[in-house]
Specification:
Elements lengths: L1 H48 L3 H16 L2 H15 L4 H27 L2 H9 L4 H31 L11 H12 L2 H40 L1
Helix pairs in contact: 1-2, 1-4, 1-7, 1-8, 2-4, 3-4, 4-6, 5-6, 6-8, 7-8
C-alpha cells in the first residue's frame, strides 16, 4: 500500500503538467461537443414533432443509428468519414463525433420537454396572433428549456465520461494522457487511479454545479409565480 502511494506521488510529480493539460482538453472537448450537440438536439426535436413525415423518418434513422452502435465504433466511423471529406484536427473530429452522439439523446430530451408543455398554451398564443415559430420562441421553448435542465445536466455528466473514448483516434485528453503515462512509466494501476480520481473530481464538481443551477431556476420560478 505504501509503495503504491509512493508511486502515485512519483507520477504526479513527473506528469502533473501533462495531466492538467489533458484535464483542460477534456473539459473543453466536453463543453464544445455538448454545445454543438444541443443545436443538433433542438433540430432533431423539431423534426420529431413535425407533421412532415420525411423529417420524422430522417430523425428516426438518426436515433436508431446512434442508439444501435457502440459509441467507440461511432467515433471511429465518424472520424475516418469526416477526415476523408475535409481536413480536421483530431480535436475537432472528436468534437463532431461526440456531438453527433450526444445530439440524439439531447434531441429526445427536448422533444419530451416540448411535448410536456400544455397544448393550450400554444393555442392561446396563436389566438393572440402569434405565428407558430414566435409562440415557440417566446412561450413554449423557455418553459421547455427550464424543464430540460435536470436531464441535460445528467447528459452533460455522461458526455464528460464518454469523452474519454476519443483516445481511440489519438487525442491526448485526460484518458489518452493517462494511457501515454502508463505506457512510459509501466505503472498502470497507479496511473489509472490518478486519472480516475481526476474524473471523479470533475463529475462531483459539475454535479454540484448542475444542482445549484436547478435550485436557482426553481427559486426564480417561484418568485415569478408570486409576482403574478
Amino acid at each position: 500500500m505504501i509503495e503504491t502511494v509512493d508511486k502515485i506521488f512519483s507520477i504526479l510529480g513527473e506528469s502533473l503538467p501533462a495531466l492538467i493539460h489533458g484535464l483542460e482538453l477534456t473539459i473543453f472537448l466536453t463543453f464544445t461537443s455538448l454545445l454543438i450537440g444541443v443545436l443538433i438536439g433542438i433540430i432533431v426535436a423539431f423534426m420529431k414533432i413535425s407533421h412532415v413525415r420525411i423529417l420524422n423518418r430522417i430523425a428516426d434513422v438518426y436515433l436508431t443509428v446512434v442508439r444501435g452502435l457502440p459509441l467507440i465504433v461511432l467515433i471511429v466511423i465518424l472520424y475516418f468519414g469526416i477526415t476523408n471529406i475535409v481536413t480536421l484536427s483530431r480535436f475537432w473530429a472528436g468534437v463532431f463525433a461526440l456531438a453527433f452522439h450526444n445530439g440524439a439523446y439531447i434531441g429526445e430530451i427536448f422533444r419530451g420537454t416540448i411535448q410536456s408543455i400544455d397544448r393550450g398554451q400554444m393555442e392561446a398564443s396563436r389566438s393572440l396572433g402569434m405565428t407558430y415559430f414566435l409562440a415557440m420562441r417566446r412561450i413554449i421553448l423557455p418553459q421547455a428549456f427550464k424543464r430540460a435542465i435536470p436531464p441535460l445536466g445528467n447528459q452533460f455528466i455522461i458526455g464528460l465520461k464518454d469523452s474519454s473514448l476519443v483516445f481511440v483516434i489519438g487525442l491526448n485528453e485526460l484518458w489518452g494522457t493517462g494511457q501515454s503515462i502508463a505506457a512510459r512509466t509501466l505503472m498502470q494501476l497507479e496511473t489509472y487511479l490518478i486519472v480516475g480520481l481526476f474524473y471523479l473530481m470533475l463529475v462531483l464538481f459539475f454535479s454540484w454545479l448542475v444542482e445549484r443551477i436547478e435550485r436557482k431556476m426553481d427559486v426564480e420560478g417561484k418568485r415569478e409565480v408570486i409576482r403574478l
